[in-house]
Design a protein that fits this description.
The complex is a heterodimer. By secondary structure, chain A is mainly alpha-helical. Chain A is about 80% helix and about 0% strand. Chain A contains 9 helices and no strands. In chain A, helix 6 (about 120-125) packs antiparallel against helix 7 (about 130-160). Chain A starts with 7 loop residues before the first helix and ends with a helix. The model of chain A has no long low-confidence stretch (mean pLDDT about 95). Chain B is an alpha/beta fold. Chain B is about 35% helix and about 25% strand. Chain B contains 9 helices and 12 strands. In chain B, the strands form 3 sheets. Chain B has a 6-stranded mixed beta sheet with strand order 8-9-10-3-11-12, sandwiched between helices. Chain B is globular. The interface between A and B is medium-sized, with 22 and 30 residues.
């Protein structure tokens, strides 16, 4: 193989890749924050005694988890406008990723909720806390600590899903890499550098999550 | 005689078709220390948990300090009180549990302060002072910064008692508080309860298997059997001369030494 690697063209456009990466991160952060809020509410609904809360929550999780995210992205961007809902590329993608993360995070949170002993709720009730106060002061903080290890892989996976925004021309990392690839013909180099950026970012997220896990661990 | 604090009339409770309380009647005056004894499945814990609505009940009345607990009655029908009302009524009692149930992500001090801050809406420094005072009273001065996981079972149970009693309840409920403890840690917890009864004149209802303790501390003992109160009276009298055969049998099998 007489191919010589030459990164010069990629380095010239490196700023573009970084801008793409920043947008990827921005999309992920906003979508995951909204998704976490959805996930928390849905998780409490999933363990509720009342079927009125449980059934719609279960339906949401089932439907979303059984759809490829690319289908959701294309549906939101191409089909919804036909039905009168017009969103920009970025808004449309963030909305989809938020709804998508909500379903996955709901499952993670639900598992965390189930591992909290019933006795803690009773102790809260016994001192006169309302069920809502118990959720916010006791259950949610404990649940969050319980799920940190599995949260890490879910968040990384959701971050990587931002690459699908390239399908609707959102200028995130994958989209920028494809552009540089087309303009410079340095195919191998471009994708090596883009991959490196993804790996580095994901490692950083994992490290941050491990740090949070250690910081928040309950002393014993 | 002191005022009536707690009145239970015809209390009935069932899980599905299983009837666990079949009409319990009981009156308790302020300052009384009543031990509830009986074999497992006799309904003693369930009765205790009905008083602070950790269990719903299907029939009868519970009145605490003159207030109807849990349900509003109108003629023959009744309606569960609002969640807010029930929370307020629960704060009239304090409860210590068999499994301690301390909040593991909070220090001992934070455990005791939580109710003062969130339920009593006390300013932080006032809550802090009260929490310190009660931790001191249960012999844990200087341990306020420890997390439950860093404390022994006996210490955890004493924090749990401080957490309940710091709320200044009118009645303390103790649900087999020494059953989950290693034998050598039982004494320190019973000592604390004894102190609260003697020094503070706290009204207490205790479900217990510690017959010696029931004998020493209680002003009255209630023996439950198959969902009803089978016999009650002065422990000095009851433990020596049981009137019913069931109690005589129970005392024989339990370790009263």
């Amino acid at each position: 193989m007489g191919y010589t690697l030459n990164f010069a063209a990629v380095w010239r456009s490196f700023d573009q890749l970084l801008e793409g990466l920043m947008l990827s991160l921005g999309l992920a952060v906003v979508a995951i924050l909204i998704g976490a809020l959805i996930g928390l509410l849905v998780a409490f609904a999933l363990i509720a005694r009342s079927g009125w809360a449980r059934r719609p929550a279960a339906a949401y999780v089932t439907v979303i988890r059984n759809l490829p995210i690319l289908v959701l992205v294309l549906f939101a961007y191409f089909a919804l406008p036909q039905m009168g809902v017009r969103l920009g590329k970025i808004e449309s993608f963030v909305a989809v990723l938020a709804i998508y993360s909500g379903a996955y995070l709901a499952e993670v949170f639900r598992a965390g909720l189930l591992s909290i002993p019933r006795g803690l709720t009773e102790a809260g009730l016994a001192i006169g806390l309302t069920p809502m106060q118990i959720r916010t002061s006791i259950i949610a903080p404990l649940m969050f600590r319980n799920v940190l290890p599995s949260l890490s892989s879910t968040i990384i996976s959701l971050f990587k899903d931002t690459s699908l925004a390239a399908a609707i021309a959102v200028p995130e990392l994958t989209f920028e890499a494809r552009k540089i690839n087309v303009e410079s013909f340095r195919v191998i180099e471009t994708w090596i550098v883009a991959s490196g950026l993804y790996v580095a970012t994901c490692s950083l997220i994992a490290a941050l999550m491990r740090f949070a896990e250690r910081r928040l661990a309950v002393p014993r | 005689m002191s005022k009536i604090l707690l009145e239970i009339q015809g209390l009935r409770k069932q899980y599905g078709t299983l009837e666990v309380l079949k009409g319990v009647d009981c009156t308790m005056r302020e300052g009384e220390v009543i031990s509830i004894i009986g074999s497992s499945g006799s309904g003693k814990t369930t009765m205790l948990r009905c008083i602070n609505m950790l269990e719903e009940f299907q029939g009868g009345h519970i009145r605490l300090a003159g207030e109807e607990i849990g349900y509003d009655h109108a003629g023959a029908t009744r309606k569960r009180k609002s969640e807010k009302d029930i929370a307020r009524q629960r704060a009239m009692t304090g409860m210590a549990f068999q499994q301690f149930n301390l909040f593991p992500h909070m220090t001992a001090l934070q455990n005791v302060m939580l109710g003062l801050l969130k339920v009593k809406k006390m300013p932080r420094d006032e809550a802090h002072a009260i929490a310190e005072k009660w931790l001191d009273r249960v012999g844990l001065a200087g341990r306020g910064g420890h997390y439950p996981g860093q404390l022994s079972g006996g210490q955890q149970q004493r924090v749990a008692i401080a957490r309940a009693i710091a709320m200044a309840p009118q009645l303390m409920l103790f649900d087999e508080v020494t059953s989950a403890l290693d034998p050598e840690l039982v004494g320190e917890v019973l000592q604390v309860i004894k102190g609260l009864a003697a020094a503070d004149g706290m009204s207490m209802l205790l479900v217990t298997h510690e017959m010696r303790f029931a004998y020493d501390v209680s002003t009255r003992v209630i023996f439950m059997n198959q969902g009803v109160i089978c016999e009650e009276g002065d422990p000095k009298e009851m433990f020596v001369n049981p009137k019913t055969e069931r109690l005589a049998e129970f005392l024989k099998t339990s370790s009263f030494t």
